[in-house]
What does this fold into?
Amino acid sequence: MNGYSLYTKIILTTCLTCWGLVIFLPLACLVFQSFSSPSNVPCDYATTELSSLTIRSFTLAAVIAFMSILSGYFPGRLLGTSHQHSHWLLPAILIPLALPRYVLYYAWTLLLSPTSALGTIISGNPDIARFLNSFTSTAVLVFWYWPIAALLVSQGWRHIDHQIWENASLDAKPLSIFKKITLPLLIRPILMAFAVCFVLSLSEFATFHLGGIQTIGTELAVLYELTGSEHYVARAAWPLTLIALTVSLILLKTSRRWLLSATTSSLTSPTERLSRHLGINHNKVPWTVFILLMGLTLFVPLALLLTNINTTTEFHRFFTLHYDDLGWSLITAVLAAGLALLIVMGALTVNNKSLSMLIQLTIFLTMFIPASLVAVSLLKILAVLNLPTAIRQGWYLVSFGQAARFTGLALILLQAARSLREKQLSESAALDGASPIKIWWFIHWPRIWPIWLGSFLLIAMFSFTELSATMVLLPAGLPNFAQRLLNQMHYARDQQVITSCLILIALFIVFITVIILLLRSLRVRYVTIILCITVGFFSGCDLESRPADCPKVLHTFGRTGRGPGEFIYPRAIDIGPDENLYIVDKTGRIQNITTRGKTLSVIHMPDIEAGKPVGISIAPDGNLYVADTHYNRILIYSPSGKIIDKIYQFGPDDKDTFIYPTDIAFTGEKKNLRIFVSEYGGRDRITVFDSRKKFLFAFGSPGNAENQFSRPSALCVDQKRKRLYIADACNHRIAVYNFKGELNKYIGSVGREAGQLRYPYDLALLPNGNLVVCEFGNNRIQLFQPDGRSLAVYGRPGRQSGELAYPWALTIDNQERVYIVDAGNNRIQIWQL
It folds into this structure.
C-alpha cells in the first residue's frame, strides 16, 4: 500500500481485515483439517456411508441444475435484451430468491399434510409419501435456482453481437440458428449457470433435510452432529471442496470479462427479428414463461399459505412472542450485508492483481462450500486462540458465517454491473495517480450506488433466513427467526408457521418497495439515514436474561458423540425404579445410564429414517413406553430392552390412532391402570387407554381456546390431587385437567417474566406437589405451586455449568434432584432446587 493516503490505507486495511476474518482464515483452517489426522473420532461411522451417496447427490444436483437453466432461459433472455423494462425486471426476477427454500417447500407440502385430503390418501403408503416429498423438495430447488440461472444466462445475451443475428436471420433455418449461433454464443454462460446451480445443490441442506432426502450436503451436517469432529467432516467433504474449487476458478476467469458495452442496447432488435423468424411472438412466449415461473415460486405458495389460515389469533400473538427473533435476526443480517460489501470493495479496489484474484477466488470458493463447514472452522479458530467465552459466543459470529456464504453473490452482482466505459475511466485515472479509493468513489460509486444498495438489501434478506451457518454459530439463548421457523415446521404447527411465513413475506415486500421508492426519489444519504434508524430501532431488543435464582449444580455428565455416555441432541428422559435413567437422543438410541453417567445398556429403535422419539416413560409395571413420534405409534419395551407390544399406528380411524405422539403418563395400577398419550400434527389431543391398551376416550382439539392444544408435548400426573398436567407447548401454558378429561384451569401465559412461559416442553412433580417446568424457549427451569403461582426461576442461556441451551426434558428422583436434558449442550445436568 505504499503511496496510498492514510485514509485509503485505513479503508483498504479494514476491507482486507474483514476478508481475513470472514473468508481466508476459516478456509485455511478447513484445508489444514482436511490433511491433518483426526482425533477423538468414533470409528463406527465409516466415510463409506458418504461415498455411497455420491451418485445420488450428483444425479439430483445435475437434474436441478439442468431444469433451472431450462426454466431461467427465457427470463434470462428478457433480462439481457429487454432494456425497456430493465428497471423493474431485475428486482422481479430476484424476488423469489428472497423467500427461503424451506418456506417454499413448506407451502407446497401443505397439500400433503396428514389432515389434508391428499395427505390422508398417501399416509397409508409410505413409499408414495417419500416419493412425493422427494419430488417436492427437488422441484422447490428448481423454483429457487432459476433466477440465478437467468442472471448468468442474461450475461450471455448482453454480449451477443447483433450483426451475427442480422446475417443469420436472412437465410438460415430456425434450428440451424439455434445450433450454430445461439448455443455456441451462450454455451459459456449456460455452462457457468449449470456449474453454479450444480454446486449449490450439492451443498443444500434444509430443503433436502425436510424432504427426508439423504445427500452429501445433508450427510455432512449429520456427520458433524454425530461425531463433533471438524477433522472428520473436513476430510469427508474433500470431493465437494475440489468441485467447488474448480467451479470457483472458472467463475473467477469468466466474471472478469463481464463488462457491459454501449452496443448492448441494440440486442433487442435482432432478438425480435429471430423470434419472428421462428414464427413465435417475442412479447408472448418469454413473458408467459416468466409469469408462470413467478406464479409457481411466489403467487401459488402465497395463495396456499393464505387459504390455510383458520385463525387470526396467531397474528396478534406473533409480535409479543417473536419480536426479539425479528430484531436480532435483522441486526445480524445487516451486519452480514455490511461485511460482505466491505470485502467485495476490497476485492475490487486493491491495487494488486494477484491479491485481488486471490480474494475473489476465496470468496467464490466459500460461497460453494457448505456453510456449516466454514462455520465449524471459524469456531475451531476461536477455540485454538483460547479467546474469552464472551468473544467465542458473541452474536456477531452469526454475521460472520452469513457474510461468508453470501459475499460471492454480491461479487457476482457487482461484477455484472461493471461497464467498459468505467474500466477505461479507471485506467485513465490510475495513470494520473488516483488511488483505488478515489477511483472507486468518483468513478464507480456515482453510477453503481443503486446496485450496491440493492446488493446490500438482497444479502440482508438472504442472511435473515440463513440456516446452515446460523445453526452452528448461534449462541445459546440468542433469538433467531429462521431457527424458530424451522422448529415450528418440524413440530407441524401449521398456523404458527403460516403466520411467520406471511409476516416474513410482508417484511421482504416492504423492504423491496421502500428501497425501490427510495432509489427513484431520494438521495443515497437519506437512504443510509433511514436504514440506520431501522437498525437502531431493532437494536433495542432485550437479550438480557430475566433475574433467576442460582441453581445448585450437583453433577454434569455427557458430551457430544455416539459412544456410551455421549449424546447427539438428547430430548427425552425418565427415571426407573432402580434410580437409573433412560435417555433417548437423535441417534435413535435409548441409553440406560446411571446417575453418574455410566451406560449400562443401549436400546436401538427399529426405525429411525423418518424421525426419532421425543417421549419416554416408565410404567408402574417397570415396562418402558416410547413415543415413536414419526412412526405414529407407542412402542412398549420390557426392562431387558425387548419390544413386547405397541399401541396403534396411523390410520383412517381417528378414535384410536395417532399422528405424532409425544408423551405417555399413567394413573392407577394393574386393572385400574389408565394410559394417557399426547399427540400433535392435526389432532392435537390427549387419548386415554385402559390396561389392555383399549381405547376409552379422547379430549382436546387443535387451537388456542379452552380445551384446545397446540403441540401438547408432555404429561405429568398428580395422583394425590387427581390432576393431569399437560405442557401445551405452542400455546405457552400448562393445562390442568382431571382424569376424566375435564378442564380445571391454566397455569402461565406467553412471555419471559416469572409466571410466564415460552415453549414449555416438559414438566415433573416434586413430592410436595410443586410443579417443575422445563422452558425450551426461555432456556430455564421454573417452579410453580399447585395453585399456579411462580415460586422461582432457575438458569439462564449459556454453555457453562448452571446454564442451559435449549433444555428439552427433565425428571426428578426420590431425593428431589432434577435431571435436566441440556439438549443444545449434549449433556445432562443434575440440579438441587
User: Anything to note?
Assistant: The mean pLDDT is 79. The longest helix spans residues 313-349.
